[in-house]
Amino acid sequence: MQPEVLQAVHLTYCTKVHPGHGWDTVFASLQTCVPELKRRLSPAAAFGLGLRLSATECEVLGTPGRLAEFQDFLAAHDLYVFTINGFPYGAFHGARVKADVFAPDWRFHTRLSYTIRLAQILARLLPPGMSGGISTLPLSYKPWISPRKQEAKMQITRNL
Fold first, then answer.
1. Are the CB atoms for 30 and 24 separated by under 8 Å?
2. What residues does each domain of the chain span?
3. How far apart, in Å, do the first and last CA atoms of the chain sit?
């Protein structure tokens, strides 16, 4: 690979693998595990995180001081967030995930509001000059949208 291409590559760790729900649980897990991973995998350079946030965790990060506390943790350990996984709206490591992971889908304003909050958080976490991204669900779960449900398709289109 050419050096300029390598500069655009991020060595990252996705926090989706951490079981637990709620910002305090997620943050405690990150504090326990990520500094050691960074030390071992990227001792001389900043280390990227792919942050998995539920809607509830977004709300907590929106309360005064919580995002700043996380930013301080990132800075102290030479970490940065450039991508957020916003596919599962709620808990991800539950007993039943298959279809539930798609709810709410893009027909609902709750999905739109959640994704906007993710974008606002990411905008505050991104290092200056760096692009970021949010992964989200692929519109809906196919069995929920029949070919004849034009209103559902219109609502998805409006929300996107």
1. no
2. 3-159
3. 36
- Given a contact cutoff of 8 angstroms between Cβ atoms, the answer to whether 26 and 20 are in contact is yes
Q: Looking at per-residue confidence, does 10 or 88 come out higher?
A: 88
> What's the predicted TM-score (pTM) here?
0.85
pLDDT above 60 for 125: yes
Structure tokens of 6?
Answer: 């390598």
DSSP state of 32: H
- Cβ atoms of 25 and 61 closer than 8 Å: no
Mean pLDDT, range 99-119, rounded to an integer: 89
* Identity of residue 135: S
CA-nearest of 52, 40, 62, 71 to 14 is: 52
The single-letter DSSP state of residue 38 is H
Give the angle 48-50-56 at the CA atoms, nearest 5°: 135
| Strand ranges of the sheet holding 12-14, from the earlier edge strand across to the other edge | 12-14, 47-52, 79-85, 133-135
Question: Which residue has better confidence, 147 or 31?
Answer: 31
